[in-house]
Write a structure and sequence with these properties.
single chain, 178 residues, alpha+beta, Peptide Deformylase, five-stranded antiparallel β-sheet, 26% helix, globular, binds nickel (II) ion
Length: 178
């Protein structure tokens, strides 16, 4: 097990479309463990496998409040099978775009289908934070980032900032490295 490096904007691999998991085997379980370790260490509430450079349709999540017991959830090959017309606005962030937050509007309720680590299929109606988070993570599996849902002006600005920082070999706002 290991904490893996998280890909940061503008890493092109974040734009890759991930492929479905065909067989849930020991390698899958190992990857899921490393995703949880990486996500908890960050810390973050959700992670898609591509964020650690693995283009597989796997998402880990834990929406438990800070002082509550952990609630690890794994979604393999998650799909949106229905979404509400009404939208919810939620401030989003992303471990691949550190320290940047912006309001994003998405369907307030969604129905999702996915496999668990034992290969059992589930269908779940999600609202609130789960709805926001699973849509954000499924986007990652399709090479989409939450900044694609904000205005072009704001998106161009954040991409420019992270591209400049990457050239200098540091994160934006990382003053210790200056
Ligand atoms: Ni993200």
């Amino acid at each position: 097990m290991a904490v893996r490096d998280i890909l940061i904007l503008p890493d092109k691999r974040l734009r890759q479309v991930s492929t479905p998991v065909v067989k849930i085997d020991a390698a899958t379980r190992q990857l899921v463990e490393e995703m949880f370790e990486t996500m908890y260490a960050a810390p973050g509430i959700g992670l898609a496998a591509i964020q650690i450079g693995e283009p597989k349709r796997i998402v880990t999540m834990d929406l438990a409040k800070k002082d509550d017991p952990k609630e690890p959830q794994v979604f393999i090959n998650p799909e949106l099978i229905d979404e509400s017309k009404d939208q919810n606005i939620h401030e989003e962030g992303c471990l691949s775009i550190p320290e940047y937050y912006e309001d994003v509007s998405r369907p307030a309720q969604v129905k999702i289908r996915y496999l668990d680590l034992e290969g059992r299929q589930h269908e779940v109606n999600a609202g609130g934070l789960l709805a926001t988070c699973i849509q954000h993570e499924i986007d990652h599996l399709n090479g989409v980032l939450f900044i694609d849902h904000i205005s072009k002006l704001k998106r161009d600005r954040v991409i420019k900032k992270f591209t400049k920082a990457a050239k200098l070999g540091k994160l934006p706002g990382d003053r210790a490295a200056e």
